[in-house]
Specification:
The structure is a homodimer.
Chain A: E1 5-8, H1 12-23, H2 25-28, E2 31-35, H3 38-50, E3 60-64, H4 70-80, E4 84-87, H5 94-104, E5 107-110, H6 135-141, E6 145-147, H7 155-167, E7 170-180, H8 194-202, E8 205-209, E9 212-216, E10 222-227, E11 231-237, H9 241-249, E12 254-260, H10 263-275, E13 283-284, E14 290-291, H11 293-300, E15 314-325, E16 328-339, H12 340-347, H13 351-369, E17 377-379, H14 385-395, E18 399-403, E19 406-410
Protein name (chains A, B): Saccharopine dehydrogenase
InterPro entries (chains A, B): NAD(P)-bd_dom_sf (IPR036291), Sacchrp_dh-like_C (IPR032095), Sacchrp_dh_NADP-bd (IPR005097)
Domain Saccharopine dehydrogenase-like C-terminal (chains A, B): 150-394
């Protein structure tokens, strides 16, 4: 059954969501996109029409909304008749948008954990600080809320469940490895909103090991991974959303997240951090102006969306899952490889945005079809993975599995 | 004859000037210090009294003044009966303070070239953009104005003239080398106001070679110098005030300025510069706040004055002057070595401030004594050097000369 979709946000990921919704509007229905700035929404819709992305004739409308204002979002949901809200706005608006869904009965999807602008890296499990506190409210309202359904978190959670269910009897460790081997050609840039990107790396690095939370600092633990297509890549133990739900669902396994960084990125990050320029706490200039350093850094860095036209190379993101099968040790790597230039050609965004934006559209289709219309809150590994992976494959993110010398598609 | 002194500015250099004036108030007379913030002036005076620095009983008073307001400065000169103004405020106030001296007849001293906040690195010779345009006005008013009488510019200009007069028949090159081999123990800090410090290095590097202006970029040309006390040090061709007057007074010689930088400084500078964080042009944050990046960088860096208590090690600044004497090639290095900890013990400032703050006090004493009471504008190399160097020696900055294996005091 078709369900109207409201997209919140108008950045690089929202662009991908918009194109993919348009390509599947025969399954979804009316489409709406809303952000603080109407013009950004209109630009996204214009790019959809430029590519002729609407599969069948239909509505795609732009709206201005302050997503921090829950009542305004609820009013927009009612006005548009949206039954599915894909929230790819700033991570600061998750709770107000979720509340609007609870109030209106619309399904809720997001791709990153809620953040309070004033806090960095709160106590684990992160989902316990905001999202999971709304579990009962979702259940009572019969609202489907799927948390963190981008690529990572999101697809990698489904990979973990697939490995645990179909390839292993016991799971000893889940290592999520995220490598962007692409090049944007700029001296320095972040692939996501710099504010969110840097906030990920300024706090304590939490991992789940030996049944408890381990704490490290960023760039303290590094490891070279040898991956398909992108080859040997150095990645660092990093704090990331999915560790916090996978640890709850697979408490007997070690759960770690590794992100690839080049020396240049680390150097720039280290300089900015040590000087205090990544701080979210305001400082006063000699002229008496109060400035949040991180917001100025964001202002001087390239807009991540502007990187897309020149981005080349590939990403490789997946799960190294170790455990036993029939009493013997087994290790599989379940992964996807995406191409920046192909993503840009199709939807006008680079590969990082593409991998993050396609999964919530697959989920929206599963909700519309009834497969994932669960009427409660869930993290992705709590949902059956194969229908999702099949839909992802159809939408452009195929899954492969490598085991020893074997490297095969998962279909 | 005693002459009352008004110090403009209340930073680290002003602190040194205040202590040295106090130590010589028998030669100078009443002392006054003025800056935008009265409390900073009062703190300087309190530190003078803490050290018991006043040689004879006398006045030392604090005043608030906006040094960008020429009339206000003139009024303060009249009110205090100051006959000598030592301007060690921001480089942005030189022209307003100089005008106040022209209007009142007070002698004018500064330690760095005038800068327009909106411009970086104007066309050479830099003195031609602002200072030298006031030459005739000074002459007409009979006002003594000695430009750039810190250490460099200042003492190094006197070293150049000494070499040219007493050690060489022809001068082929003057290479000023400024090495700070001290350590402040912070992850990163600038020794002067970060705004002024970085502005020095973001523009074109001008040097005078083969009878013309040569242009390079910062950190493009590096050279290892083997110097007394501090040993082998890498320094880079840098734009600096004194090149612009020495080139006019010794047009047949190559005139270059070299400043020592460690790899860490260069790395931090390069990151900040390439990201646009050293820009003096305002940028707009996503929240609509207009911020000058350089002013925020200044706000997050340590206050240079706060470095003094922990500063250890030495500076070595001097002139390598090459030419001929009696038809044979000759090279001398005329230099001073200063010690950060000794400076702090004596006047509560680190060595960089000490070397900059002592010379204008020596000049003030020479003016009061009549030696340098010239009634016109001059750069330091246009004045007889030996009385100045003798006074500097007495005030704590002895001069030495190295030639081959010989290394002797200049007295």
């Amino acid at each position: 059954m078709k369900r109207n979709v409201l997209i919140i946000g108008a950045g690089g990921v929202a662009q991908v969501v918009a194109h993919k919704c348009a390509q599947n509007n025969d399954l979804l229905g009316d489409l709406h996109i809303a952000s603080r700035t109407l013009g950004k929404c209109e630009a996204v819709i214009a790019s959809v029409h430029d590519k002729g992305a609407m599969k069948v004739p239909g509505r795609f409308e732009a709206h201005a909304v302050d997503a921090m204002d829950s009542a305004a979002v609820a009013a927009l949901i009612r006005e548009t008749g949206a039954e599915i809200v894909i929230n790819v706005g700033s991570a600061f608006v998750n709770m107000t948008v979720l509340q609007a869904c609870i109030d209106t009965g619309a399904a809720y999807l997001d791709t990153a954990i809620h953040e309070d602008p004033a806090k960095i890296c709160e106590a684990p499990p992160w989902y316990g600080n905001y999202e999971w506190k709304r579990r009962e409210a979702c259940e009572a309202a019969g609202v489907t809320a799927i948390l963190g359904i981008g690529f990572d978190p999101g697809v990698v959670n489904a990979y973990a469940r697939l490995a645990a269910e179909d390839y292993l009897d016991t799971v000893e460790s889940i290592d999520i490895v995220d490598i962007n081997a692409g090049s944007h050609g700029r001296w320095f840039a972040t692939n996501f909103d710099p504010e969110i990107n840097f906030r990920e790396f300024t706090g304590t690095v939490y991992s789940w090991q030996k049944g408890g939370w381990q704490e490290n600092s960023m760039f303290e633990v590094g490891k070279v991974w040898d991956l398909p297509v992108v080859g040997e890549q150095k990645a660092y133990l990093t704090g990331h959303d999915e560790v916090h739900s996978l640890a709850a669902n697979y408490p007997g396994a070690d759960v770690r997240f590794w992100m690839g960084f080049g020396d240049h990125y680390i150097n720039v990050f280290t300089v900015l951090k040590n000087l205090g320029l990544l701080s979210e706490k305001p400082v006063m200039t000699a002229e008496g102006l109060e400035v949040v350093p991180l917001k100025l850094v964001k202002a001087v860095l390239p807009d991540p969306a502007s990187l897309a036209p020149d981005y080349t190379g590939k990403t490789c993101i997946g799960d190294v899952v170790r455990g036993t099968k029939d009493g013997a040790p087994r290790e599989v790597f379940i992964y996807n490889v995406a191409d920046h230039a192909e993503a840009f050609q199709e939807v006008g965004s680079q590969g990082i945005s593409y991998t993050a934006g396609v999964p919530p559209v697959a989920a929206a289709i599963l909700i519309a079809r009834g497969d994932w219309d669960i009427g409660r809150m869930a993290n992705v590994e709590e949902l059956p993975p194969m229908a999702f992976l099949t839909e992802l494959h159809r939408l452009g993110l195929p899954t492969r599995i490598r085991e020893g010398e074997s490297d095969l598609p998962v279909t």
